[in-house]
Each structure stands twice: as structure tokens, then as C-alpha cells.
Amino acid sequence: MEKPDANEGPSASQLITNRIAELGDWRGETLARMRQLIKDADPDVVEEWKWMGTPVWSHDGIICTGESYKSVVKLTFAKGASLEDPAHLFNSSLEGNARRAIDIHEGEEVDEAAFKALVLRAIALNGSGKPKSAKKAKP
């Protein structure tokens, strides 16, 4: 699922696909694999393209971003500091109050089941922040 965009042009999903193809190396393969794991964990995930070229996956708020650098693919979870991470996937941005990231280097594998569970915990946390339905006041 992708977020509708008022602007004409490629969709966010297409822009992410293009980025993966442009990388053309292990980083593209890694980003594609992690994207598929996110979609497997949440078929209703919304793909967005923000901040001048950053893939973003959302469900009731941002789950994570996917950035590619020369030597690492970085998946930054917006509310990672509030998520349980029993598999210790987070290995970057550990000092922050909100975000946590997973840096994946060439040749590294991520525990797929643990990653999907982390995505689901992020979605649950996003959903828990929604305001409860207001009760009608008595006249």
C-alpha cells in the first residue's frame, strides 16, 4: 500500500524501487530484502518518500526509514528507544532518547523473524499513541 500523493509523478513505491535499482550492488539487495520483510510483517504498510529522497515505511506513524551509505544500509526506527529488542538488532544510534537504528554491512544477515517482530512492535507502539475515542459529555 502506498500513500497517495497530490503531485503527479512516480509513486513513493516506485521511487523506492528506483533507488534500489540505482544502488545496483549489495546495498540495493539489502534494502530490497529489508523492504520485503517489512511488507511481509505488515501487508498494510505505507511506503513514503521523504526528506529529499529517503524511503520511509509507516503504519499509524513512522515505523522506520531506509538509508543507504557507502558502507552501510541503515534502518532507523523512529521510536526505537521505546521498543523491546530481545534479539539486540539495534546496533546504532543507541544513545538517543527516541531513535534506534540497525546498521547492516556488506555480507551481514539480519534475523528475519526478529526483524519482523520488531516491525510489529513498532506498529503496536504507533497505534497505542492514538487518542481514545472521546466520551460524550452529559448535558
Describe the 3D structure.
The protein has a single domain, classed as Aspartate Aminotransferase, domain 1, CATH 3.90.1150. A hairpin with a 4-residue loop joins β3 and β4. With 139 residues, the protein is an alpha+beta fold. The protein has helices at residues 12-23, 26-41, 112-128; strands at residues 46-50, 54-58, 62-68, 73-77, 100-104. The chain contains 3 helices and 5 strands; from the N terminus they run ααβββββα. The protein has a 5-stranded antiparallel β-sheet. Mean pLDDT is 89; it is low at 131-139. The termini are far apart. The longest helix is centred in the last third of the chain and has 17 residues, at 112-128.
Write the layout of secondary structure elements.
Blueprint: H1 12-23, H2 26-41, E1 46-50, E2 54-58, E3 62-68, E4 73-77, E5 100-104, H3 112-128
Antiparallel strand pairs: 1-2, 2-3, 3-4, 4-5
Helix pairs in contact: 1-2, 2-3
Q: Which key terms come to mind for this protein?
A:
32% helix; 5 strands; Aspartate Aminotransferase, domain 1; 139 residues; disordered C terminus
Q: Kindly state the number of beta strands.
A: 5
Kindly, what is the distance between the CA atoms of the first and last residues, rounded to a whole number of angstroms? 43 Å
CATH architecture: Alpha-Beta Complex
Order of helices and strands: HHEEEEEH
Mean pLDDT: 89
Summarize the structure.
This protein has three helices and five strands; from the N terminus they run H-H-E-E-E-E-E-H. With 139 residues, it is an alpha+beta fold.
